[in-house]
Amino acid sequence: MEDITLTVNGTEHELSVEPRTLLIHALRDEMGYTGPNVGCESSMCGACTVHVDGRAVKACTELAVRAEGSEITTIEALGEEGDLHPLQESFQEEHGLQCGYCTPGMVMTAAEYLEEEPDPSREEIREALEGNLCRCTGYQNIVNAVESAAEEMSAAVEPATDGGTRTVDGGD
Amino acid sequence: MATEEPEQRPESVKTIEADDVDPDELFGSAVERREDPQLLTGEAQFTDDITEQRLVHLAFHRSQHGHANIESVDTSEAEAMDGVVAVYTGEDLAAGLPCGFQLEGLTDPDFPVLASERVRYQGDAIAAVVAEERYVAHEAARAVEVEYDRQDAVVDPVEALGDGAPQLHEDAPGNVAFEWDIGNADETEQAFEDADRVVELEVENQRLVPNAMEPRAAVADYRPRADELEVTMTSQNPHLHRLLLSLITGHPEHKIRVVAPEVGGGFGSKIHNYVGETVTSLLALEHERPVKWTATRTESFLTDAHGRAHVTTGELALDSEGSVTGMRVDTVADMGGYLSTFAPLIPTYLYAPLLSGQYEIPAIHCEVTGAFTNTSPPDAYRGAGRPEASFLIERLMTEAAKEIGEDPAEFRRKNFVPDDAFPYETPVSSPMSYDSGEYGKTLDRALEMLDYDEFRERQERAREEGRYLGVGLSCYIEACGVAPSQQWSDWGAGVGHWECGVIRFKRTGTVKVHVGTSGHGQGHHTTFAQIVANRLGVPYDNVEVVEGDTDEIPEGTGTYGSRSAAVGGSALVHSAEKVIDKGLEIAAHQLEADPEDVEFEDGEFHVAGAPEQSVGWADVAGAAYLTGDVPDGMEPGLEATTYYDPENYTFPFGTHAAIVEVDPDTGDVSVERYVAVDDVGPQINPKIVEGQIHGGVAQGLGQALYEGAEYDENGQLVTGSMQDYNVPKAFQIPEIEMDHTVTESPHNPLGVKGVGEAGTIAAPQAVVNATLDALEPFGVEDIKMPLTNERVWRAIHEDGGDS
User: Are residues B502 and B602 both part of a single domain?
Assistant: First the structure.
């Protein structure tokens, strides 16, 4: 067993895992963060996507020990009650989810993408989501949701003052 | 070869927050889904999210081979591993899965949960391992050693029926599961004898893998002193699963609770009764500890009931006027290695009754043979028989129009069932009849959206430039809410097709709804609340909907076949009427008026002509539960239960159309436009309808262009992963342009028809017809789905030979 420290959604966790333990199982089974889901165990579907040090990572093919010391954000902490991330708002408004199983991963991938590309075209959104499969929606309302969130976030960007970080007003 | 211009967002239904909608406008409003906040924040609980104290994990050792005798099973290494609790083989666990549709003349071989003598498809379970940890269970399952005596396999259903084919079951000589027919055979023969022309097609409706994003899973817990078995599972129909678990385990039905928590998609695959969930339950009873099993994606590919898998010869007889006078169909349906729960139903009573499509065809005869093969057992997958029927008639109509040199749209229009002919019984729908329809309207609208006439000119110009565009039509029909139960029982159904809906007022006038459908992405908590709040005139937020729990809902039938609105919604309407009737009597008592003088309007009861003298639901509920201020002899309480068994199916319809461009150098088919005009009756929530159509179309496009399960000659599933089986990605699905018409169903109180499967039924033939239209200059007559680049390229350069 390996002792590792992971900071998940701002809370530091010390845990002992087997070297083979996947990050997704450490998150779900060991620490109870069941927002990210397991869909394919092979990086194809993206339901398990979380942010590791700010990058979208498919936690079903990442070892927990490799994430040692990292800061992880799951869907549970992307927004807060009453102050949801614009993507969480837009997915509801645009009906970007049905069964919701792919949604945590889809939203986390889109969140990272919009950090990099704040004004994407619809084709670019479709390309950016190629690693996240949805079997329910046919994607059109997901693309609408990401497009709407991009507009919302661009409108809410305040001029960078220190270090150029973006701030977003999650409200309407 | 995508178009140059950036994609524009197609028109889309705008959602509204429910707080902004009056109860009398709730039916038909695109309110935001109340399911979403939990799903968007990780709060929602799916089956694998559940953990229990003393939980053990279950994993299976499954057959690597498609067909083999089992010589020996050695579990010693697995049993010796640290953390392994027990290992079971077929010798230890003698249970079998029943088939719930006993078609006349069916051969129904044993389907053991663990094979001990012979395996008949890759994925057939051989051993079950229980361990303290998830990884250990899988590791130990891999450590089970099986010695096989491999047998020749047969994976093609037509070959399986042929002479000398490997035989799967001793009690099914020739690998025949059933032989069945429907329609008017003599009239059909006569129609073909008298025909001016006959059009014939060989059609393969390829095998598909459902690929719900959430793999199947179950957590079972048995409390021995209470003697209660509780199974939380990925189910579309918990009450059915409770019945089957009771039959298989012998545990009494009333001592089993089945719960479907959040369920991550199903598309049919979570209707059925499988080895995984069954063994989880059996072992919870055995060990008196909670047991969890979660399918890997590989297990999902190997064992989730596949869909379609038909091979068909279809013919149309035409008279000299170009009217269709007869249809003759011969289908071989693949049943796989065993019969899945409802397998014999899908290619019979869910398929052939739709063969007439939107057309008036006086003589139809269809024969179907079910064949056992060394493949995973198919069963219902989104559409379930209806896509196969729609694909066949819509391909035949297109070929027939081509044969007689008529425009495919006009040829269809000429043969439509006329608007004044409803209710309309076809030779294969009998004793059911199409409920209502105005087929010309959706075709007209689709052609208008496509700018069809302009397209034909554009197509001509493009061909001159060496670009190949094509348009394809699909005028589809489907059947939803199949019933009545007695008719279906006569045909072989082991379960009823009614639905149960309970409306129960709370003491303060809020409402809890308990309904036996079991949504898994369809937004029932929203739409049923819209229906009930609308009917009762109470605020939307005062209505809570409960589904998916056999202890919370008296009885239920589940969600499949696009039935939930038409059947479950109708049950709730009847319960609303009953509870309003009782409320009215209580209100009259409170108002000291004759009940006949009291009116119910906007959630208030008042004396006719005196609206100021009124009482509301809170007053009535308070009287019913708290003060006893009710008429003499009336029972307390304010609730109503309805079991609604429809008298007929509903028949939604529409026209879908695709414009594609084919690159003859690469074989690439690019969908330039996709237009969907659907008539699903009145729409409870247009946004949810839009989402259902989008998703359905995506699965239909998947079948047309990308998806297909393939077995090699040894019975190995060579498309057994998401790397090898193309579940469509976001960039592979075009923008879908939508419109609708509204034709009410006359025989249910909401007039609704159903929408869950429409897109999947409609889409494949629109794309195939469009592709063949594009390739008309090359003389390409047919291409099998999926229309991969290679198949299209070969059709152009080898079959067509015009290059």
Answer: yes
For residue B8, the model assigns a pLDDT of 86
Those residues whose C-beta lies under 8 Å from the C-beta of residue B621, and which sit 6 or more positions away, are B505, B506, B507, B508, B509, B638
B261 in contact with A, Cβ within 8 Å: no
Same domain, yes or no: B460 and B356: yes
- Angle at B648 (CA atoms; ends B642, B653), nearest 5 degrees: 115
Asked whether the beta carbons of B660 and B669 are under 8 A apart, the reply is yes
Asked if residue B654 and residue B631 are part of one domain, the reply reads: no
Q: How many CB pairs under 8 A join A and B?
A: 199
Contact flag A100-B522 (C-beta cutoff 8 Å) = no
pTM of the model: 0.97
Identify all chain B residues contacting A144, using CB atoms and an 8 Å cutoff: 9, 12
Is there a single domain that holds both residue B742 and residue B635? Answer: no
Q: Could you tell me the domains of chain A?
A: 2-77 (3.10.20.30), 86-156 (1.10.150.120)
Whether residue B26 is contained in a domain is answered as no
Secondary structure of residue B536 in the 3-state scheme:
helix
CATH code: domain of residue B422 = 3.30.365.10
Examine the fold and report which residue of B617, B644, B671 is the final residue of a domain before the chain moves on: B644
**Scanning every residue of chain B, which has its alpha carbon at the shortest distance from the alpha carbon of A94?**
B15
With helix as H, strand as E and coil as C, how does B384-421 read? Answer: CCHHHHHHHHHHHHHHHHHHHCCCHHHHHHHHECCHHH
Query: What is the distance between the alpha carbons of residues B341 and B380, in angstroms, rounded to a whole number?
Result: 9
- Res B2: pLDDT: 42
Query: Could you give the CA distance from residue B556 to residue B242 in angstroms, rounded to a whole number?
Result: 11
Question: From CA B486, how far away is CA B497, in angstroms rounded?
Answer: 9
CB B697 within 8 A of CB B760: yes
Residue B313, classified by CB atoms within 10 Å of its CB into exposed (0-12), middle (13-18) or buried (19+), is middle
Q: At what angle are helices A103-116 and A140-156 packed, to 10 degrees?
A: 40
Nearest CA in chain A to B731: A126
B587 plus B659 within the same structural domain:
no
Q: What is the pLDDT of residue A156?
A: 85
Same domain for B330 and B276:
no
Final residue in a domain of this structure, among B644, B679, B700: B644
Shared domain for B746 and B655, answered yes or no, is yes
Residue A159 pLDDT grade (very low, low, confident, very high; cuts 50, 70, 90): low
Q: Is B746 helix (H, G, I), strand (E, B) or coil?
A: coil
Phi, psi of B644 (to 5 degrees): -105, 125
Q: What is the pLDDT of residue A170?
A: 38
Q: What residues make up the domain containing B548?
A: 498-644
Any domain includes B766: yes
Cα–Cα distance between B52 and B219 in angstroms, integer? 9
Q: Tell me the torsion sign for CA atoms B371, B376, B380, B385.
A: negative
Q: Name the residue in chain B with its Cα closest to that of A74.
A: B42
Is B373 domain-assigned? yes
The tokens 């099986």 sit on which residue?
A: B146
Residue B195: what residue type?
A: A
ipTM here: 0.97
* Residues B282-307 as b or e (16 or more Cβ within 10 Å = b): bbbbbbebbbbbbbbbbbbbbbbbbb
Angle at B618 between CA B614 and CA B620, to 5 degrees: 65
- Return the SS3 of B302: helix
pLDDT of A157 reads 76
- Confidence label for A165 from pLDDT (cuts 50, 70 and 90): very low
pLDDT at site B17: 94
Identify the CATH number of the domain in which residue B110 sits: 3.90.1170.50
Q: Which regions of chain B are under pLDDT 70?
A: 1-5, 799-803
